[in-house]
Amino acid sequence: MAPLFGAVGWSVADDSLWLMEGAGNDFLVGVGSWSGRLASDPKLVIRLCRRHRGIGADGVLALDVEEDARVRLHYRNADGSHAQFCANGTRCAALAAVRLLDVPSKLVVITDWAEIPAQVDGENVTLRLPTPGPAEQTALEAIGRKWNGIVIEVGVPHLVIQVDDVAQSDFTEAAPALRRHPALGPGGANVSFVSRGPDGTVGIRTFERGVESETLSCGSAMVAAGVIEMADRDVNSARVRPASGDVLTVEDLGTGFGLTGPARFIAEVRPVEVGNLKLETRN
Q: Has this prediction a pTM greater than 0.70?
């Protein structure tokens, strides 16, 4: 097999998974026989995604080519649950389709939320997303205080709370409590704290539903934060910096929104005797 980071010569082993990351959000990617297993077996997903005792990832991407430039993405979170959309996962899926499945660099990734046009340019991937749902103001009680936030849906629901400084906020304590707040419905929401830096870049921290912890980034949360920032400042683009330190760009395209940021391969992975592992449910 050619070196992983070579510009050409990619080949696919049917017993391999691929570990990828998009702005710090990491995923296991399956094609071929792995695609069906990851899409249909939540217990397997849990076992593989467990850090230290599995391979470790925030979620899994199961890919199948439907036509020359159209790829179907089945996404599961690390807890085995299905999600309609994952923006960083979709960006990684686009790059994986180009490198592993010989799909053109301009393609469509079919998610359970929408069909997402994507453009791969080296290790930068741009998505063209539908317009998110309406932004609604809300006030919630958690950890003994009131939190004013905005609820907005970008394929999946998000609660965005503006604070003075995400690094100095009560995020670690408040986000898990807000994640399952009854006012957010039975499924709850992803929770993000955001603050605008002196250079105008929006800092963001996100507690992700389905991972049930803070992740280094969440693409749909960054879109939510970017949409809110653009509305507040009456501009057509916003730069968003998640905990990973990467900077992604959200743009108002007039008929939807763009998200541009990095994605890359980390490793080819061949799990040992996965079928014989005890598949434990995460507590």
A: yes
